[in-house]
Design brief:
Elements lengths: L7 E3 L19 E8 L2 E3 L11 E9 L1 E7 L9 E5 L15 E7 L5 E2 L11 E9 L1 E6 L8 E6 L20
Length: 174
């Protein structure tokens, strides 16, 4: 039985294997390693040792690709990782970006890529970092006996309209 539905049953009797007898098959993202019989690689000059139908199994190895990590203004220890087609992405470094929370890595088509995501792109490709801006709570201390108030602000934005405190006999100057 061959991966993904490929099956070959070749009866060669007492004949020696030839290049024509051993079909070359291609599988996207994989390198064809050869035909195997009971764990032994069958070459053109391999003699047939059994006089019965044979089931040869195609053996493949996933191709290794380079993934570029675009931190989108964040910092990373490395901006490239190696992945193998058909395997998972594994642990991808997490970028740091001041004032932002890292949400995840995404392909250009918008698909989120996590450590257990299977590599299904058969070429070098890029993952883009996506962030949410961090919010902070600002507490306004009135010092006039009124209760303090709070306001949520986002990093790298403005404070917006600020409250104007009052205190008897005083003018608030900011």
């Amino acid at each position: 039985v061959i991966e993904e539905g490929f099956y070959y049953d070749i009866d060669l009797g007492e004949k020696t294997w030839t290049d024509e007898d051993l079909p070359k098959i291609e599988k996207e993202g994989y390198t064809f390693l050869g035909w195997y019989l009971n764990g032994k690689k069958i070459e053109e000059d391999t003699a047939v040792e059994t006089l019965s139908n044979q089931v040869l199994v195609a053996k493949f190895s996933g191709v290794e690709y380079t993934v570029t990590l675009d931190a989108k203004g964040g910092t990373l220890a490395t901006n490239k990782v190696k992945v193998t087609y058909g395997s998972t992405y594994g642990n991808i470094p997490t970028p740091e970006k001041e004032g932002y929370q890292f949400i995840g890595w995404y392909l250009t088509n918008g698909t989120k890529v996590e450590s257990d995501t299977k590599v299904e792109i058969s070429s070098n490709h890029t993952l883009n970092a996506v962030y949410n801006v961090k919010d902070y709570i600002v507490t306004f201390v009135y010092n006039n006996g009124s209760a303090n108030t709070t306001k949520t602000v986002s990093y790298n934005s403005t404070y917006g309209v600020l409250p104007t405190p009052t205190k008897v006999g005083m003018t608030f100057k900011g």
